[in-house]
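Re: the request from the purification team.
They wanted to know what the chain is likely to look like in 3D before they choose a buffer screen. I agreed to run a prediction and write the result into the notebook, where they can find it.
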Amino acid sequence: MKSKIKDKRILLLVSTDITFDQRVHRTAKTLADLGANVSIIGRQLSGSVQLDWDGIDTERISLSFQSGPGMYFMMNKKMVDVAGKGPWDIVVSNDFDTLLAGYRISRKHSSAWILDSHEHFIEVPELRGRPFKRYAWHALGLWATNRLDAAYTVSDSLARILSSTYNIDFSVIENRPLLRSNDTEVTTQTRLLFYQGALNRGRGLENAIIAMRGMPNYKLQIAGDGDIKDELAAIIRRYHLSDRVELLGRISPDELDKFTAQAWLGLNLLEGNSLNYYYSLANKFFDYAQWGVPSINPAFPEYIKYHKKFGGCLLLEDQSSKSLQSKIFELEDDPKAYDQLKAGALEMKNHCHWDTQTQKLERIYSDVLEE
């Protein structure tokens, strides 16, 4: 049956480097596979690499400001300019920071307008202690959601909170990875701990590194980039942990898979002092499971739900370095418990992949065309 979005022109607006935004890539590819003409406008950053995404047009904008109000104003203005004459049938703002451009482009072309909210934007740690900035983003959200045609986010918990806050129904498209083939050979490195994701505050990375002081037989690899990269490097130097902790930097999705596959345990150590983190459902949680890698996660609502359903992960009530050490040592001393976790992760792999989200995604986009 022909999809309703076949031959429709869809524009995705992204404030990040699209090279590493796998959610945006999966969304764009799904829409393109359904016959849509998909374009993405993202940012050109120092680590950006050339892209060749079959069937997807990509444009990157360079900015003289890299943060602050000037950056957001210039980014949204350039997005409107690059979008040009269109025409566009659907415009998608990925997170609040592309709402202004999404509104202007959608109104200029009489397009449907969708928000993909990857997080609870006003509850990110970076806005803690900044009431004016938080209020400004909240006001923008209230203004924009009254004009949106549809919105979706990454978890049931966030959907409930965002729907209540902004008085619009948020659907849920979980940040699940593509299903991995069983043909790939995987060799696990015992005692290898692995983290993938942004290097920002509130992700428990400082405590993870400090925990390695008392874990001489373990190695920790950290893949990603972010605001506290230099601070993490300083902690590694201060405690002479360069033989145990490796900062891999930002690596391509293919390389990331290779590192993930070798891990003994995946780390997802979000701290609960941010509501954005408390109600989150991180993509790394599913990424680890796709390679049969058990993970250790905070005892937050979404992770508790999946723990009850599949196993495959440990829950950490206290994100201190001592608690992390204790949990890992307990697991090493109980091989049977580890095997059960690995079996649970493999069960998650077969049930929690991107194919389970594509019909819901198509329905969201088809419905806005009928309004």
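For the purification team: The two ends are 21 Å apart (CA to CA).
Please add any questions underneath this entry.
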